[in-house]
Amino acid sequence: MAQLTTSALPKKQLAAGVILLNEQRHLLLVKPTYRDGWLLPGGIVEVWESPCQAALREVLEELNLAVRIERLLCIDYQKNETAPRENIQFVFYGGILTAHQQRFIQLPPSELSEYRFIELGDAINLLNPYSARRVPVAVQALEEKKTFYLENGTIVC
């Protein structure tokens, strides 16, 4: 039997996004400077960092806000034939941001050009196709107090 080496093991990219709402229950989206479309706050999980730690770090870096992760909403396994690697996306719920908290939002200008609170139906039109499938499921998980596992944005269980 052949010995598996670490370099032969599959490499999957992990990323974490955070659902943040305002008091009207509109979704917070950010507009990156480095690609088209809008995203949830979040980003790549770094080496030796958990997805939850990455979510907290990214919200702090991108919005200048320290939030508390309330729960995991969904995990989405993405396999895109045109992408260089598989991707596993974790979406967490970070709570409702008060008007007071929103006053402290500061974006890193080299990374994000703006943020916006937007109704879910309108948000879908701004998100990339993968996020446009994943985000409504994450909101459904929040409303139904469930956690979903997805593959390419489709609920598996």
From TrEMBL:
The family database entries (InterPro entries) matched by this protein are listed as:
NUDIX_hydrolase-like_dom_sf, NUDIX_hydrolase_CS, NUDIX_hydrolase_dom
Its domain of life reads Bacteria
**Pfam families, sorted:** NUDIX
GO molecular function terms attached to this record: hydrolase activity
Assigned keywords, A-Z: Hydrolase, Magnesium
Q: Which cofactor does it need?
A: Mg(2+)
Q: Which residue range or ranges hold the Nudix hydrolase domain? A: 11-140
Q: Does the keyword Transcription apply?
A: no
Per its UniProt record, what PROSITE patterns does this chain match?
A: NUDIX (PS51462), NUDIX_BOX (PS00893)
Protein name in the entry: NUDIX hydrolase
Its lineage reads: Bacteria, Bacillati, Cyanobacteriota, Cyanophyceae, Leptolyngbyales
